[in-house]
Structures are given as structure tokens and as C-alpha cells.
Amino acid sequence: MVAATQNLRRLEAQRNELNSKVRLLREELSLLQEPGSYVGEVVKVLVKVHPEGKYVVDIDKTIDITKLNANDRVALRNDSYTLHLVLPSKVDPLVSLMKLEKVPDSTYDMIGGCDKQIKEIKEVVMATNRIDILDSALLRPGRIDRKIEFPNPNEDARLDILRIHSRRMNLTRGIDLRKIAAQMNDASGAETKSVCTEAGMFALRERRVHVTQDDFEMAVAKVMKKDNEKNMSLKKLWK
């Protein structure tokens, strides 16, 4: 008898749970079957629907007509055009507080101007490696007070750059960096650095741990896009 009572209670609990799920499914189904809506604004007794036009519409019984104002955003059912929902305003109320309601009658000169800020302006430095393509308006007197040219490094400077960027490389004995610098006529500092990088890459491609004079000379030919004085073949250069 006790077991039968327990089974009955268990079945009743399952029935109640299933009934609850059925109710939820019915509610979801009714929401899915509800027709879509149009969005419009209340204009006196009309509703203006973008971009279709203006309509005289019915108001759903759930809407309090006394709370409707001109330019309110509302939703209309797409099957009957019944106004059934009042939408929130598109304008953030915090933004309206930031609007300027009155033009100020004071100017910068009246409150001290910008003399202090002008005195605190720092020097502006501009750099370019293509001065030939700059707009002539930028180069007029008064725009740039002082022009300083940094030309490409000479042979001694290129030698110093090669020594700096090759100091941590495993170089074989007898490498003549001055000869490499002499081959790089009119090369920039960046191109000089690239020669060291490319020389190391040539050694890595041949699975060597030391960089040779030939590696540097092939790197010069690759970076400067011309053959070196040994007239190496392109096949050897791009191996």
C-alpha cells in the first residue's frame, strides 16, 4: 500500500511537471504566432510609418491613449496596423542635457586668450627621405624655420655601421669590412645594416656557423641590386 502511494505521488509530480512544460510551450507558440510590427511616430491623430506614409490607426486596448504624445515612437501590427506598443525614444536623455541652449557671450580674448598655451608650444620636428615630393606650401618661409640635411653616410661612416652590426656575428678571419663599405657607394644606413643581415642569411642557407667575405660581397650585390667587382653570376647570388 505504501509503495502504491509513493508511485502515485511520483506520477502526479511528473504530470505537474509536464503540464508546466506544456504551458510554457503554448506561451512561446503564441508569441511566435503573433504578427510582426511596423515602427512609426504619432502625429496628432495619424501615425507616420517610414517610408510608407501616414495612417489613421486603431489603438490596442492595452495602450493608455492619454499617455500618447506627438512624435512618440510606436509599433503597429503589420496585419491590422493597430497601435499596440509604445517604443522608447531614440534620443538619449543624457545627450539633451549636453546641448548648448544659449550661445556664450564671452570670447577667448576676454578670458585671457591663448597666450600661455602659445608660449608652451614645443618645437615640432619633421623628417623625410623624399623632400622632392613634398608640397611646396610646406617649405615656404615661416612654415619650417630650420632645415637640416642628413646625407647618406660616407665610406668611413658605412664602415662604422658595418662594424656595429657585425660585432655579434661569427666572422671568419681576414674579412675586409672597409672593402665592403667601399663597394656600397651612396648606400643609406639602413642598406648598410641590411648587408650584415643578408650576409648572415647566406651563411645560414649553406648551414655554416661563420660568415665569410663572399657572403658579404653577395649581400652587397643583392642589397645594391648590382654585381660586385667579382662579377658573380645571378645563379650564385640567389641560391
From TrEMBL:
Q: Where in the cell is it found?
A: Cytoplasm
Q: What span is annotated as the signal peptide, if there is one?
A: none
GO molecular function: any one? ATP binding
- Record-level GO cellular component terms: cytoplasm; proteasome complex
| Pfam families with a match to the protein in the record | AAA, AAA_lid_3, Prot_ATP_ID_OB_C
Q: What is this protein called?
A: AAA ATPase AAA+ lid domain-containing protein
List the SUPFAM superfamilies hit by this protein, alphabetically: P-loop containing nucleoside triphosphate hydrolases (SSF52540)
Q: Describe the location of the AAA ATPase AAA+ lid domain by residue ranges.
A: 175-217
In its UniProt entry, the species of origin is given as: Emiliania huxleyi (Coccolithophore)
Sorted alphabetically, the keyword list is: ATP-binding, Coiled coil, Cytoplasm, Nucleotide-binding, Proteasome
The ATPase AAA-type core domain is annotated at: 124-151
Main location group: cytoplasm
Annotated coiled-coil positions are: 1-28
What Gene3D superfamilies is this protein classified in?
A: 1.10.8.60, Nucleic acid-binding proteins, P-loop containing nucleotide triphosphate hydrolases
- Which residues belong to any copy of the Proteasomal ATPase second OB domain? 44-88
Domain of life, per the record? Eukaryota
